[in-house]
UniProtKB/TrEMBL annotation:
This is Ig-like domain-containing protein. It comes from the Eukaryota. Residues 18-96 form the Ig-like domain. It comes from Cylicocyclus nassatus (Nematode worm). Gene3D superfamilies: Immunoglobulins. InterPro entries: Ig-like_dom (IPR007110), Ig-like_dom_sf (IPR036179), Ig-like_fold (IPR013783).
Length: 254
């Protein structure tokens, strides 16, 4: 089975939210071509999963949820093949079901309880098994991706390299990458991050994926960082960079 990659990420509300949710097999494959293909759906890699609240539309082109619970969260794979192909290619869709309502979420996203704009916060987040980063506009996120002590971290978002993600000079206790002042229109997307680590005198490669979504919901593992500590780290980083530049200038003049 060949994995084509992330096709979409969706965040939906549970049964208290009345609008039905549908997942299309693929936006990239033309409708006529998709109709002629053999199609099957999987959830979290399993062909057999509960479909009590799912309706299959147009010969498996889409699945429609008649209701939602948090148990419906997961990775839904639409696997397709057409003759003479013998193996399926799968397009994966990540669905996260949360509680609450749209109005409540909008309020939490932009305002505090007293109606005033909230202050930006810095977080350290460990990406959990749901592969989701819930991020609030303007907040800064140190993101821990790997258990190992890794080097050479690089990330793509939706298949393209991203300059907005910092991957170097980050304290290991905070995270492996850094997104400053989260911007929903720029930073929302599907991330794939690669890194290296040493084991038994040989270099191993690791890969982690996650989706960043603008959402007021807390992450499974998150810790608010003290602003004084963060400011001290950024100040030290600036000082070291400045001194290094001065050193280079002096060496050049000598």
């Amino acid at each position: 089975m060949q994995i084509e990659g992330w096709n979409a990420t969706a965040q939906a509300y549970d049964a208290s939210y009345n609008n039905p949710v549908a997942i299309k097999c693929s936006e990239q494959i033309a409708s006529d071509e998709l109709s002629s293909m053999s199609k099957m759906w999987r959830k979290d890699g399993e062909e057999h999963f509960s479909t009590d609240n799912i309706v299959f539309i147009e010969n498996n082109k889409s699945i429609l949820f008649t209701s939602l619970t948090r148990d419906d969260s997961g990775i839904y794979s639409c696997c397709v093949k057409s003759p003479p192909e013998t193996s399926y290619k799968c397009i994966e869709h990540l669905l996260t079901v949360v509680g609450g309502s749209v109005d409540l979420t909008t309020m939490l996203l932009h305002k505090t309880n007293d109606g005033e704009a909230r202050n930006a916060t810095t977080w350290s987040v460990l990406i959990a098994d749901d592969h989701i980063l819930n991020a609030i506009e303007g907040d800064t996120y140190y993101i821990k991706l790997f258990e190992e002590n890794v080097t050479d971290v690089s990330c793509t978002m939706d298949g393209s390299m991203v300059a907005e993600v910092e991957t170097t000079h980050i304290p290991a206790e905070y995270g492996d990458i850094l997104i400053r002042s989260f911007n929903g229109s720029i930073n929302t997307g599907n991330y794939t991050c690669n890194a290296s680590y040493m084991q038994d005198n040989s270099t191993k490669e690791l890969q982690v994926y996650f989706a960043a979504i603008e959402s007021p919901l807390p992450n499974v593992y998150q810790e608010e960082l003290d602003q004084d500590v963060v400011s001290g780290f950024t100040g030290a980083k600036f000082t070291n960079s400045f001194l290094f530049c001065v050193y280079l200038i002096v060496m050049y003049r000598m």
